[in-house]
Amino acid sequence: MKVCIVGASGKLGQYMVQHALNRGYEVVGVCRERSVGKLDAFEGRVTIIPGATNDREVIEKAVAGCDGVLTVLVPWGVEQYSSGTAQAVLDYARPGARLIFSCGWHIARDGQDVYSWSFKAVTKVFGWIGRLTRAVELDDQVEACRRIFASDARWTVVRGSTLEEGESQGLPVWSRHVGDPILASDLTRRVDFALFMVAALENDELVHEAPAIVGCQTPSALAAKSAN
To answer: Per residue in 187-203, pLDDT tens?
Structure first.
């Protein structure tokens, strides 16, 4: 399988590169030119396409011939970075390709997610500060996902909980709605978020799903397992 990882130089992206290589995939990575050095550990094993991830020409070149595309939807800046990236991937990925996108729990698909007051407060403050400093545009990430949800492509939008570093605990568990008891721990290892993204490439049960994930060894996940 040939896969493209859009946003390969970030922490999540680098973990996805490693997981994909571990599975024997051919990997193409997209990252900003100034970040290419972050991928030196993979030199000779990954084809790197430098450029902005919302640059349509860069994405068109990178996804050519790929069976799957893993995209980190980053809400940086106020220039429609997330929606531009998502639209380019939707437009240029080959028909039938698996398209996996990452975002956070704040993305809602069907209005049935239940958020705590603290989560809503933190998201609101983060978004306000981001707009004030012109550093983050959460609304554009929402727009990016709206376009994905409306697409007929074979997409999955993986919604990550709070992340932490650490050794892998295994494939995270998921549920369709934030607020479901299994997700109560709100914690996932970043390396396992990446694992879920890569594993989704070959999991057709996740096509047209927006799974909210949590670490498989967290108390809420273990409680759900014991209850079943």
So the answer is: 999 999 999 999 999 99
